[in-house]
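Name: DNA repair protein
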Amino acid sequence: MSPLVITLLIVGGILILIAIAYINHMVENSKLEKARLKADLNDRLKRCADLSESLPGQLMTPQLKLLLSRLQLHFAERLLPLDKSAASKTRIGELRQLIAQGESIAVRNPPQPVLTEAKAKEVRFQLENLHGQINRCAKDGVLQGNEGKHWLNEIRHMLVQLHIEFFGNLGQQALQQNHPGQARLAFERGVQYLRKQPDPSRYQAQLQVLEKHLARANAMVLETAKPASEDSSELTQGLQELESDDDWKKKQIYD
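Structure predicted for DNA repair protein:
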């Protein structure tokens, strides 16, 4: 065998090894990308399902339930080529049946009274999660721009509803416990929060109710020789912490 043939065989062997290594690299990258995509779709699907089931009934509407079902179907259908299990196919069928009901879709979420700061933070976290899902879906083109903006506005409205309920309940609890000073603080926070909304007229009725409660609590404080003030600093801190950190709700769909 001539030296030229040997050289060509060696070069050919090296090229084959390089090709095999490149193909293996591409296969591994493809597997990693599919795994990443599968994990991402499963996460988004789970988040939407959890929101659909766990949002308090006073914030859930048929329109929102329908939207979350649509998003779940979108992620489930994208996931199907990566997970062709019977469970995935069953879930897709169930979601299609729900969506076919339109706005007649059943809403079985039970109301969850917001009576504590911990509960208020829990619901706010859910709204932040919902905001993130809607915002990303709008950027990815899953939702049209106008629809995305509409739902981001609705989430801001739900956040205001949360604050109204929390401040109102906190004030009523303080009155029942004969702490008019704490009640006044809670109602005052609620009034201030509503007055600084971009569209305060939308919440005029709720504002009037809180103002009446505030006037009543203030009168009770003036009637007492020593206004109740115990734990007021702790209450103030809790109210301010809930009221703050709302910058996320001001994010727009587009940069």
